[in-house]
Amino acid sequence: MTKNEIADRLTEIGVLLELKGENPFKIRAYQSGARILESMEDGEFGRLMAAGELDSVKGIGDALAQKITELHTTGQLEFLIKLQASIEPGLVELLDIPGLGPKKIRALHDKLGVHDIATLTAACNENKVAELDGFGPKSQEKILTGIKHREAYGKRHLWWEANEVAQPILTGLRALPQVERTEAAGSLRRGMETIGDLDFLVAAADFAPIVAWFVGQEGVQEVTAQGETKASVRFASGLQADLRIVPADQFVFALHHFTGSKDHNVALRQRALARGLSLSEWGLVPAAGEGTAKEKAENKALRTSADTEADLFKALGLNFIPPALREGLGEIEAAEKGALPKLVELGDLRGAFHNHTTASDGRNTLAEMTAAAAEFGWDYLGIADHSKASFQANGLSEERLVKQIEAIAALNTAQQFKTHIFSGVECDILTDGRLDYDDELLAKLDYVVVSVHNAMTQDEAVMTARIIRAIENQHTMMLGHLTGRLLLRRESYKVDATKVIDAAIANRVIIELNASPWRLDMDWRLWAKAADKGLMCAINPDAHETEGLRHVAAGINSARKGWLTKDSILNTRDLAGVKRWFAERK
Known about the structure:
alpha/beta, DNA polymerase, domain 1, Beta Polymerase, domain 2
């Protein structure tokens, strides 16, 4: 188990102990241990583990060192397993409700007998939570809203997490000798930010072995349906995966149909009908005549031949429409005119700017983040740790930020890595729109990202004015996560995105597409119009550890859905181009 994975387990232990009402000193010991591991370089951790000297680190005693060693060597911890079993599962689920931490959950449990979502809902509906010390009517209302959202969110899954499940399934299907072609379809293929379920399409003539493999794969918790050419399974996360097997000559039509979206499919079927054709999952056939679409599609003499989706679109007088654009938002009209953009691709990115280190709340050091970026082949990496107002994220004081600027300069001078490091900061936008540092300090940085991290309940007019004031600061170069949303967890704060976009364009400020799978903010639905007006984008992973740099792939999905080309994205430029942009902007 890796250093950061062990830190996660220690953090979990602290949370569970807090739910049990354990001694605060014991709780803090695990929380502190997690922070110590996160701030430790991988090499140092490995050396200490190999030498058996972990207990020599200040803050890690014998007992904690033993638990860390057990996790590192076995991947499990008996203490944690017993602790998890000792706590009612319903209490842990309550942690998913925004605003409810371990202490509040413990109070609800001890004073009102709350032990799961149902009993919490009942307590709120009976107004008992509002009357409880430390809560009140507003807290009760927020809890009820959180419960409502959780019920809706429970049916959806993040694209990133769904894709992590989907890729091994695709690999497994492609390895089966009976499989001629296979693809994932649905909203996963279109790159939607959240996924309802997974759809897999297979072309094959021998069905039984494929269905048997699909329902028997590792991780399946339940087989919800199983037939000759179809099957559905559910995994422990609640994610459902559906399999459909079709003849090879129907594969392209079925792939297009099950990729969707509904609006795109309806518009394309209407286009087919206008040309005397009928388009369905079975094929593209003459609309007139007897028989159903399926029956006519089974008549190979009638069905249009298509080896690829490009053939299908060509048969309807269209250029190929990438799956990302199939949302019924003008893509068919653009394909008819030959006006579809050349969408940005993952390989176009040369670096990213919004990333964190152990200096604030990151889990890898400056050198480790740089090394990871170099392994990616990136030309540059921007470090933007939190500013001092984000005390919960160990935000940097003025003195610590100056030291980080110096450390970055030294790293660049040493030329240990081919990747150049830009010095930045994620500067808090204070409640009135001022920035968290003075102009003199901000001027020393290569760039400044400004973001909202608190007072998210301000009304729309106040929040909009607050963000625009920050944008108008001469040192602001990028706006981070425009709406503050956390997908499937927290709704956006109220803000007039159109006014903010206009202000960003007027002040030559970039709005980032935050590629964190939990954010994907600014939303892809806003990008096409904004880019047409001249807004520049930066696809930033908001990485808090080296693995987080990979999240740019999720950002590329959203950028493609937003019709973005590389010309609209700063971090598709080479190092010289970015340096030139920063210099001109200053």
